[in-house]
Amino acid sequence: MPSAICLLSGGLDSTTCLAYARKQGFDCFALSFDYGQRHKIELEAARRVAEALGAREHRVVSFDLRSFGGSALTADIDVPKDGPDPQTIPITYVPARNTVFLAFALAWAEVLETTDIFIGVNAIDYSGYPDCRPEFIEAFEHMANLATKAGVEGRTHVRIRTPLIRMSKREIIELARALGVNFRLTHSCYDPEPSGRSCGLCDSCRLRRKGFADAGMEDPLEYAADYDASAI
Amino acid sequence: MPSAICLLSGGLDSTTCLAYARKQGFDCFALSFDYGQRHKIELEAARRVAEALGAREHRVVSFDLRSFGGSALTADIDVPKDGPDPQTIPITYVPARNTVFLAFALAWAEVLETTDIFIGVNAIDYSGYPDCRPEFIEAFEHMANLATKAGVEGRTHVRIRTPLIRMSKREIIELARALGVNFRLTHSCYDPEPSGRSCGLCDSCRLRRKGFADAGMEDPLEYAADYDASAI
After folding, report:
1. Of A32, A226, B30, B75, which one has the fewest beta carbons inside 10 Å?
2. Is residue A15 part of a domain?
3. DSSP secondary structure letter of residue B142
4. Could you tell me what percent of chain B has a pLDDT over 70?
5. For A64-121, what is each residue's pLDDT tens digit?
6. Is position A200 within any domain?
């Protein structure tokens, strides 16, 4: 069975991506990050999801991006609640986050002699983050093959796999359902209440709720605020 | 004054690179990593060097690459002492290390709105690490400009600056001398004694000692073993 590293935040997209990789026959090594994120509760979701989906291992790498700041997720800046503005990159963007995450995935992949790295990035119903776009992923893959021992020796070719990149949130939710994902295990909110309940109004909650609505499905999560489709 | 992020291990190359960046008029933000390296003592050298060379700030980001292992610097594997073999990538290579380091540098650069990142990689008198080669650096720079907010908005262009990449160790040492570097503050050994004294026989000690010999200069560091030029 081929192996793969699967980046896993515990959210809808990375969970679906892991379920997809498992379905494709990969032995999955799930990788999460405790980077000082406001919504650290997602790590608990990641743990549950990795177990439920039969990941071979689940590692959490810790470092503190709060020391750099620059984002509502890693600094003392409010998470916006009034819906995404398609013209700007939102303040929830964490500088170079996917570059850092993929760099660690590459390190682990190289040690395990694995060539496949799955990441649940999405460039359709997404927050406009630069490091979710196909051109970024292609450039990272090219760099990765020059960065590593196996790449230099021509033994292997690293692949950054992004099965969700061209899907709408509705399509991701439908794929997750077809793959048997238990949505109750996942967590998407950027700014959960101390109880863990999702706020319902941050961009991530909004995208998720609209996806469920579009798919005509019920989201099993509880939200603090009623659904408001006006600002999506 | 333009600002720059300078990766700083406290070794000869990164110290020279920082001194060069300062000389070029950059306001330097030095960045080091506590990644579980065997020679953690280098962080003390980095602190001394950052201060001596007038870096505006010196940050140390911590994470544990020992959890992945795969290198004599991060796993329970002996550091080779019998000289480099030019045909193979040595076991001191740490998987994807420079990718991880540059990813963090990019994150900090983006928060500071800095576009210049200095790294003291060298592809002449080096250990054959894949992530020290010009093609890797070029690919990283290309990726970095697609990864970031400013890159996407076309406001800035990230530059990975590698002033030492085509220099021999002798030339680096001569440049360092011209820049007034205090060699006594630096640390190069991969496997220092508990006292901090350098082993003298690891690849890093050998390259350094040969560089000083070629430059006709005396290395002020103390070594546990006599100099042996036979295996360089």
Report:
1. A226
2. yes
3. H
4. 98
5. 998 898 898 898 899 998 888 877 888 888 889 999 999 999 999 999 999 999 999 9
6. no
Structural domain for A172, as ranges? 3-81+94-187
Are β-strands A3-7 and A116-118 bridged in parallel, bridged antiparallel, or unpaired? parallel
pLDDT at B90: 86
The answer to whether B111 contacts chain A (CB < 8 Å) is yes
How many angstroms separate the CA of residue A133 from the nearest CA in chain B? 8
Whether chain B has a CB inside 8 Å of the CB on A155: the answer is no
Query: For B141, which residue in chain A has the nearest alpha carbon?
Result: A143
* Cβ–Cβ under 8 Å, residues A82 and A232: no
Quick one: residue B10, left, alpha or beta (phi over 0 = left, psi -120 to 50 = alpha)?
left
User: What pLDDT sits at residue B232?
Assistant: 65
The runs of H, that is alpha helices, within chain A are 12-23, 42-52, 97-112, 134-147, 149-152, 169-178, 203-214
CATH of the domain at A29: 3.40.50.620
Q: What residues in A contact B130, CB-CB < 8 Å? A: 146-149, 151-152
Q: Would A86 be classed as within a structural domain?
A: no
pTM of the model: 0.95
**Would the CB atoms of B144 and A99 count as touching at under 8 Å?**
yes
Q: Domains in chain A: how many in total? A: 1
- C-alpha distance from residue A222 to each of A45, A78, B139 (Å): 15, 21, 44
Q: How far apart are CA A72 and CA A100, in angstroms?
A: 18
Q: Cβ separation of A130 and B136 shorter than 8 Å?
A: no
CA B55, B147, A186, A116 torsion-angle sign: negative
- The answer to whether A60 faces chain B, any CB pair under 8 Å, is no
Q: Is B130 on the interface with A (CB under 8 A)?
A: yes
Q: Give the model's pLDDT for residue A224.
A: 96
pLDDT in tens, B8-19: 999 999 999 999
DSSP assignment string, A123-147: SSSS---GGGSHHHHHHHHHHHHHH
Cβ-nearest to B63 among A63, A96, A147? A63
Residue A179 lies in a domain: yes
